[in-house]
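Q: Here's a chain of 244 amino acids. Please give me its 3D structure as tokens.
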Amino acid sequence: MTSRLRIVTWNIHKGIGTDRKYQLERILAVLRDLDADVVCLQEVDRGVPRSGYEDQAERLSDELGYPHASLGLNVRVKGGAYGNLTLSKYRLSDIHNVDLTVPPKKRRSALVTRVETGPTTGWMLANVHLGLMHMERKIQVRRLLEHLFEGAEPGQPLVIAGDWNEWTKRLVRSVMNEHGFHVARTDARPKGERTWPSRMPLVRLDKILYRDPVRCHHVACVLDETTRVASDHLPLIVELETPL
């Protein structure tokens, strides 16, 4: 027997599209169609003027019908803040925001949750938005992995999803080679996971990594008329499986 999990990661750019208009409705429409089990979003606003002071986490959770949600706020902006949001059809437990800030750079964190897909199966999931500099990201990933390995049970499904801000393959290759992770990708369409910029995607800034015994059955970037304009990133969707 196996447990499957359909995961989407997407930097929604506060709901502000490439046309510079704030329309969270476009984000909602895309996610509603994808109907993932778990959604990892980055750059989600709460109480910020640019997004009409909306609590985007609450609205996304309510209108999409996800009963479980966790928001990890990172950066304060004009009386509000933004950060990473994890939505789930399954119960979330052991929720904590791991500080990945490398001073004097912008505050960054990883929102770590346990996704309870069954009485004996809990996926450990990290929703991340890494820094802009390679050395900054290297420190952040090392800090995150130390935290994950410290808390993970033997053989527990372990997934890292989000905006890696990684233009090259150096960091991901080191994580794969040194720590046994795999990056969700398809050999059939090697350019199919390019997520940025959304109007003409050139690089894979957004990635989902997983570790054995997890296996990847499907991965795709969602590129259409709506996603080209809804955010500056494209959503990435994968279907993962692990033995029970």
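Q: Can you summarize the key feature?
A: The radius of gyration is 17 Å.
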